[in-house]
């Protein structure tokens, strides 16, 4: 290296997720976007916007339930292909995706059979952690709204996902449930996981100032 030449620094690693000029169209009208953002591994970001600004649409698109209409998405630097990250991206949406006739224990067993589990975790342990001890074998349709949300959180905790997409995760939860969501999020991020969270309530997150992704209707 010539004297005085600047030291070469290693290129920054690619973001876990990057959106460039991303839009979703309905009847040729953009629901949101064009939107540019990055999300790193071990980072939480808040998706903000008024009612109808497209927060749920964005999360459903990232969960593979809708197609990218315009712009581009990258996963670890490569063009986004659902088949490359299907097991790594977990959505907790308004519809919780639980089978009402099955118990929490059975719902989690089905999910674990399909996707595996995080090492060191088991079904009864996560149900206990989310406060469903004693309700493990009750059909989900007989649980309260908050208990159903807790069962969905138990599934999120159990499965080996990298990116959590949480749409209004605090809805229907009591104070202890809200604290539970924050605890699970902090632990996920500390372990190198990432999360995109929509919430109209205050998210209390102690892992630093989260990135904010603002949608405009
Ligand atoms: N299935 C659908 N068919 C047609 N339009 C839809 C559908 N779902 C949502 N929309 C429209 O897309 C826009 C964005 O909706 P979306 O649910 O993504 O907003 P949001 O930001 O999550 O809203 P909120 O804060 O009320 O939950 C709204 O104008 C809505 O009416």
Automatic annotation (TrEMBL):
<dbReference type="InterPro" id="IPR003593">
    <property type="entry name" value="AAA+_ATPase"/>
</dbReference>
<dbReference type="GO" id="GO:0022857">
    <property type="term" value="F:transmembrane transporter activity"/>
</dbReference>
<dbReference type="Pfam" id="PF00005">
    <property type="entry name" value="ABC_tran"/>
</dbReference>
<keyword id="KW-0547">Nucleotide-binding</keyword>
<dbReference type="InterPro" id="IPR027417">
    <property type="entry name" value="P-loop_NTPase"/>
</dbReference>
<keyword id="KW-1278">Translocase</keyword>
<dbReference type="InterPro" id="IPR017871">
    <property type="entry name" value="ABC_transporter-like_CS"/>
</dbReference>
<keyword id="KW-0067">ATP-binding</keyword>
<dbReference type="GO" id="GO:0017004">
    <property type="term" value="P:cytochrome complex assembly"/>
</dbReference>
<dbReference type="InterPro" id="IPR005895">
    <property type="entry name" value="ABC_transptr_haem_export_CcmA"/>
</dbReference>
<keyword id="KW-0472">Membrane</keyword>
<dbReference type="InterPro" id="IPR003439">
    <property type="entry name" value="ABC_transporter-like_ATP-bd"/>
</dbReference>
<keyword id="KW-0201">Cytochrome c-type biogenesis</keyword>
<feature type="domain" description="ABC transporter">
    <location>
        <begin position="17"/>
        <end position="215"/>
    </location>
</feature>
<dbReference type="GO" id="GO:0005524">
    <property type="term" value="F:ATP binding"/>
</dbReference>
<protein>
    <submittedName>
        <fullName>ABC transporter ATPase component CcmA</fullName>
    </submittedName>
</protein>
<dbReference type="GO" id="GO:0016887">
    <property type="term" value="F:ATP hydrolysis activity"/>
</dbReference>
<keyword id="KW-0813">Transport</keyword>
């Amino acid at each position: 290296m010539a004297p005085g030449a600047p030291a070469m620094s290693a290129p920054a690693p690619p973001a876990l997720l990057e959106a460039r000029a991303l839009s979703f169209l309905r009847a040729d009208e953009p629901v949101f976007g064009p939107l540019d953002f990055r999300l790193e591994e071990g980072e939480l970001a808040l998706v903000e916007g008024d009612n109808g600004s497209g927060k749920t649409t964005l999360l459903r698109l990232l969960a593979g339930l809708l197609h990218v209409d315009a712009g581009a998405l990258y996963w670890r630097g490569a063009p986004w292909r659902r088949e490359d990250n299907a097991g790594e991206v977990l959505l907790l949406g308004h519809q919780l995706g639980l089978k009402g006739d099955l118990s929490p224990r059975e719902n989690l067993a089905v999910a674990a059979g399909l996707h595996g589990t995080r090492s060191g975790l088991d079904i009864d342990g996560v149900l206990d952690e989310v406060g469903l001890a004693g309700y493990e074998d009750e059909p989900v349709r007989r649980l309260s709204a908050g208990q159903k949300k807790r069962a969905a959180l138990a599934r999120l905790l159990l499965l080996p996902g990298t990116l959590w997409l949480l749409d209004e995760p605090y809805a229907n939860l009591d104070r202890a449930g809200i604290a539970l969501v924050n605890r699970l999020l902090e632990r996920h991020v500390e372990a190198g996981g990432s999360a995109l969270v929509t919430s109209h309530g205050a998210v209390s997150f102690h892992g630093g100032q989260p990135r904010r992704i603002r949608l405009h209707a």
